Amino acid sequence: MNGLTIKTFYEGLKNKKFKAVEIVEEYYKRIAEKDEEIGTYLSLNKTDAISQAKKLDSDIENGKEISILAGTPLAIKDNILIKNQSVTAASKILSHYRGAYDATVIKKLKEKEAIFLGKTNLDEFAMGSSTENSAFKITKNPFDSERVPGGSSGGSAAAVAADLCVAALGSDTGGSIRQPASFCGVVGLKPTYGAVSRYGLIAMASSLDQIGPITKTVEDAEILFDAIKGKDSMDSTSIDLKLQTTNHKLQTPKVIGIPKEYFEAGGLDKEVAKALEEAIKNLKNLGFKFKEISLPYTKYAVACYYIIMPAEASTNLARYDGLRYGKLQITNHSPSQISGGNLGGQESQTLKEIYFDQRGGGFGQEVKKRIILGSFVLSAGYYDAYYLKAQKVRRLIREGFNEAFKEVDVILAPASPTPAFKIGEKITDPLSMYLSDIFTIPANLAGLPAISIPVNLKPNLPVGFQLIGKPFCEDEILTIGKKYENCLH
Amino acid sequence: MSAPIDEKTLKYLAQLSRIKLEEKEEKKFLKNLREILNYFELLKEVDTEHIEPLSGGTLNQNEFGTGQAITENVFREFEKEERGEKEKLTEQFFEKKDNFLKIPPVFE
Fold first, then answer.
1. Which chain B residues contact residue A398 at CB under 8 A?
2. How far is A78 from chain B (nearest CA, A)?
3. Chain A residues lying within 8 Å of B25, measured CB to CB
4. Beta strands A450-454 and A464-468: pairing type?
5. What is the pLDDT, as a whole number, of residue B72?
6. What whole-number distance in Å separates Cα of residue A123 and Cα of residue A130?
7. Distance between CA atoms of A278 and A255, rounded to whole angstroms?
8. CA distance A476 to B64
């Protein structure tokens, strides 16, 4: 079963090479053997998963036609709600919370009878680029256990890379799907803003968040994207996609743009620069034309993002009042177990004291810092200088892409300035951690679809390249990506 | 746009954000926030004189001829839904009586 993809799992199941339950059990065995070391999962859903697989097997036995995702063992980032299952966003403040309903992406996948093996680790509330900000555990890079898997969807990317699931879902606000995909040598797609419903995704920054697939192949990313995309009445920002991405064929080779600012900044690691050259060479061999373009506002993207994102996050996280989602027992400023069903001996506390205690003790440092930063940039006197200014720069960044897309069809860029860095290397220097998102942030600010694809198949340390497309033109980046991965085999 | 964050401002912001900070955290946050605010100075050099702020979405997508833009209010049909979620949403509240959620007095 080594390295099963959605496609090969489906074919094996359809041709009765194996049963769904055998594969699901095999994955739980692998998880039991390997995950203590790698640390990808926060919770498992074993009983349900196995009974679902058994039911599917008996349906197949009875001659039922199955969907391409039937029985597929998936891992889900732990900021996406599955009804009755634990959902923590890797935060203590939600440590005992269970999903009250299914996220729309989960509902859609359940309709296709996909199986959820468990929930994966992330930076708390998806705030981070290394998964080191999880309140529960450190996830390690499957290629090198001293290195981070990237983040914030580090658990999902590492689970796919270590073959602890067939494929996974992540979420991407400033690169949280693409950067860990690059670090772990897997494929990660951030869809266009509005392509996938966020209903049931724990909100971080609502004008930037998107859910997307993390997979072993571009073909799998397309299958999973097709299954979760589309208009949803529960997310007013979702869009009715008229484009069909499956079986779409490129008529002529497309022109790929290379933004000079992404390469001349000098911040690009040698290994990454070398890998990018290799990717460009491979794409040229496939007949794609390249053209140098300019995205003049690139260098302002990180500053712009780290004003807008905390502003939105400080608002979104106001809902964690220490009451609605369960209450923590706070002693000496550190939370211990939850005290369900009563005030836990803290009856004398006023409402305000509860808020201060619960939020002070329940949120981790990065989350608290970003909430305070968000409150600052939104406060009277600073709003114009920071928040409004950032929104204006955001328009310039998007206009820069609009101009570029008049000349080229797709833009190629690094996914990250470096390969996976060492655990502990950047966690004490937030600014250097923030700067590692420089190549992924612009697509979020402009709402564009972007995919990270591994440059080669057997690297020492993986490097991904990024293809950024026009809004709702996922089919173009996916088609080029599929051609690329076919040429590697 | 200088970076005028001092201890007093930080304490005030923590108050506004309803977050209790330890003294150790205050020191660290002050240092980190000063660094990041300092970095934001970079935006000063961008001329945004006649630029409208952009809050997000995929406006302008009509330029690419790919469907409608998110520029209008979006409504959904009113329907009485029996999602069975009400109980699920409140069952994890820390203290309840009948259909009421119990909290300490809001007005002191």
1. 54, 60
2. 18
3. 365, 368
4. antiparallel
5. 60
6. 7
7. 17
8. 13
Q: Is B40 on the interface with A (CB under 8 A)?
A: yes
Which helix (H) or strand (E) element contains residue B85?
A: none
* Catalytic member of A176, A238, A416, A436: A176
Confirm whether A77 is a catalytic residue: yes
Q: Is A206 known to be catalytic?
A: no
Please write the tens of the pLDDT for every residue from A180-218.
999 999 999 999 999 999 999 999 999 999 999 999 999
Contacts of B93 in chain A (CB under 8 A): 323-324, 326
Are the C-beta atoms of A211 and A238 separated by less than 8 Å? no
**Model confidence, pTM:** 0.94
CA distance B53 to A308: 12
Is A152 designated active site?
yes
State the fold for domain A6-252+414-488: Amidase signature (AS) enzymes (3.90.1300)
Query: pLDDT below 70 — which residues of chain B?
Result: 1-3, 59-73, 80-84
Segment A248-265 mean pLDDT: 77
Helices (H), A251-300: 260-264, 270-285
For an interface test with B, which of A206, A297, A372 has the most B Cβ atoms less than 10 Å from its Cβ?
Answer: A372
Rounded Cα–Cα distance for residues A92 and A88 (Å): 7
Q: CA A105 → CA A228, A234, A281, distances in Å?
A: 5, 11, 37
Q: Which domains does chain B have, with CATH numbers?
A: 1-45 (1.10.20)
User: pLDDT for B74-99, tens place per residue?
Assistant: 777 777 666 667 778 888 888 888 88
A193, A323, A333: residue with CB nearest B58: A193
B39: nearest Cα among A126, A302, A130: A302
